Amino acid sequence: MQPSIRDLIKKNKSKSSSVNITERVMPIILLLMASFSILVTIAIVFTLLRETIMFFTVVPIWDFLTGTEWFPFFGNDPSYGIWPLVSGTFTIAAIAMIVAVPLGLSSAIYLSEYASEKKRKIIKPILEVLAGVPTVVYGLFALTFVTPLLQVFIPSLPIFNALSPGIVVGIMIIPQVTSLSQEAMNAVPQAMRDGALALGATRLEVALKIVIPGSFSGIVSSLVLALSRAIGETMIVATAAGSTPRLGFNPTESIQTMTAYIVQVSMGDATFGSTIYYSIYAVGMMLFLFTLLMNIIASYFARKYREVY
Prior knowledge:
There is one protein chain. The chain is mainly α. The protein has two domains: 53 residues; 234 residues, MetI-like fold. Helices cover 74% and strands 1% of the residues. It has a two-stranded antiparallel ribbon. Helix 3 crosses helix 6, helix 9 packs antiparallel against helix 12 and helix 11 runs antiparallel to helix 12. The mean pLDDT is 84.
């Protein structure tokens, strides 16, 4: 027996009522989740800011921002000039980008413009395995393999140096550069490639003169985000770069980065509530500001040079 029209209307009304309830409830749930993420960010910033202010009640902010010596463990005359840690951090980041940019962009160009679909499905997952390797393993790899290998060519290279971890950090961020750059390149319409090829351009000319300019904003964003990742790297530099805060950009010397110093103090080298303890929050705030600046720059380039097709 087929249901009557009245039964079908009642059934549709009950179904519509449940759908309407879901439509009303889901936005509230999603808003709560988004609000939770915002609250966590605010809590992190508040914690950093509160403890940083405690540090600056003891150490003048001018000495922190302009000092060129970082010796917090000198009991009688400690120095809290941040620039040795900043120079060590950017030395590692610069070496990493020198490694990651050519290798990452070359891989992205190959996967986007040259590789067949079958090769792409094989190569890209293998490449992205690098992103899943724990950073402590990368640190041990830098210390026990890369450094001895470099010592063959640079006999005077000490066991702790900036060159080895910088290279390994660069290897670590290659998947990020490759994946984000390839996605930007894939967004360039195929018609632009076909038009250039029809005019007699080679595939390399299409890649360099059509695809890269057309995806420039996405590529720059990927590079800036990779730079932020290199600046914030912890375990590789803590394992293989040493713990010598030194102002300068000599990659063959032992250095200390901002993240490595935070790890050193967090391991128990300072008592709770001491000036050294509060210094890790000041360093963390500086690191947070650098990372925030990198993300702002990435957003700026993404908006300024975005191509709309």
